[in-house]
Amino acid sequence: MVNMKTILVTGGAGFIGSHLCEALLKGGHRVLCVDNFLTSSRANVAPLLSHNNFVFLEHDIINPLYVDEPINQIYNLACPASPVHYQNNPIRTIKASTLGVINMLGLARKHRARILQASTSEVYGDPLVHPQTEDYRGNVSTIGPRACYDEGKRVSETLCFDYHRTHGLEIKVVRIFNTYGPRLAENDGRVVSNFIAAALRGEPMIVDGDGSQTRSFCYVDDLVDGIIKMMDTSADIQGPVNLGNPVEFTIKELAEKVMALAGSARPITYTKKFREDDPMQRCPNIAKAKSLLNWEPKVDLETGLKKTIEYFRNKLEPA
Questions:
Q1: 75, 86, 124, 149: which is the annotated catalytic residue?
Q2: Do the domain assignments include residue 264?
Q3: Eight-state DSSP code of residue 159
Q4: 149 in catalytic set
Q5: What is the mean pLDDT of residues 172-181?
Q6: d(CA 307, CA 286)
Q7: Residue 312 above 90 pLDDT?
Q8: What pTM did the predictor assign?
């Protein structure tokens, strides 16, 4: 018998958030989904609207949120997460990770709810330690074009731990590494969606620099499983905990793999110039997730890319 909880998910209509809402509903819980559609899509949650235990609230967490019914858990995922989006309005991005997080922590305190904050691997900046462990403090620019997101997320972690120390709030912090899968937006500037969309449209695949920079790619179902497991750990575990796939690829290797799986014959174009403050290496050490959550990714890159390409193929083909 499932112990039904009332769970609030901010950013619930986003790429990761919508998959999380779906998983929580399948787990027998009541889900209050909060989103302002700034970078998300109504289509992501459209299939959930008819579910008896799903409630959608259109709201921007920069403003205080009042919920009458008791809440047991809050997953705070609300923040633009791709460079195209978070650099478009950097001040607003910072507000989501400061004012927005303060509002959600206040809501959690009011309801005596446990809260999970979705942080990011970007808190490590352009790392001098590889792979990145949770005790590495990072190499982050406070004034660069990515700082609105990187530093905002670092502050969000600080706020969580200060609320925990000051008010005894039950907190969980996860640092999410590159994630991909169905419901990625084709125009959000993430490398996987950029490459797949270009390959399916028959357009040149453009790679920043020479493609030697590395990333690790975690399929969204694996990530959601890790997030839920973190939320359900005992109260003495706060994190932060890295969630990502520890198998590392160069961007050049990713481009070639997408081309092969999508059947693209267009050449790869290298810009020879790296983006400002773009990390050259990014790969998680997930020893903590393995020991605390009994979690590690199960979906390999080729399998996950096939599913993602199929999603994009259906989405991009003419009606």
A1: 149
A2: no
A3: H
A4: yes
A5: 96
A6: 24
A7: yes
A8: 0.94
